[in-house]
Amino acid sequence: MRILLGLCFIIFFNINNSIADELVISNKLSLHYSEPKLIAHSSGVLIAKYDNWYFSHELVNPKSFYGIVDLTGIEHDFLRHVFFVKTKHELPKWIIELAREQTQSFGIKKSNIFKASFDSYDILSNYVSEAKEGNIFILEEHQIHKVNVFGEKDKFEVILKAIQERKHEY
What we know:
Helices cover 27% and strands 32% of the residues. By secondary structure, it is α+β, with helices and mostly antiparallel strands. Helix 2 packs across helix 3 (93-105). Mean pLDDT is 87; it is low at 1-16.
């Protein structure tokens, strides 16, 4: 009986201490990561904490992304303006001014931007070495993900490369 209880404890302990290495962020995308020291979830933000750095993920809410301005319907174009990307639609001048303010707030310069386009999503990102902070925006057709990385640039690059199209759905 003691052996059976011991085996049950070992199996239970191993199951409870295992962690997935894939964060499914949408039905088409996931983010692969190494096991963090701590995972926390608060107010719609998921945080993975490591020894000397962390990253967070959240969905962009167009109603609250820029203070009291509701960006619903123009959030994709707004972010493209923030990252110096030409848009298909003309935005009002006052919205373009807000985008410029956001560009400054994120520390975005043409020299610290990474942009990529894939079949089902675009990535707009930047890393500010002085602040050791990176912003990654993943633009899908109907939603935008924001991933922040706080740490050295190599950690930012690891997370940037970890964003992938899902190979299968569950």
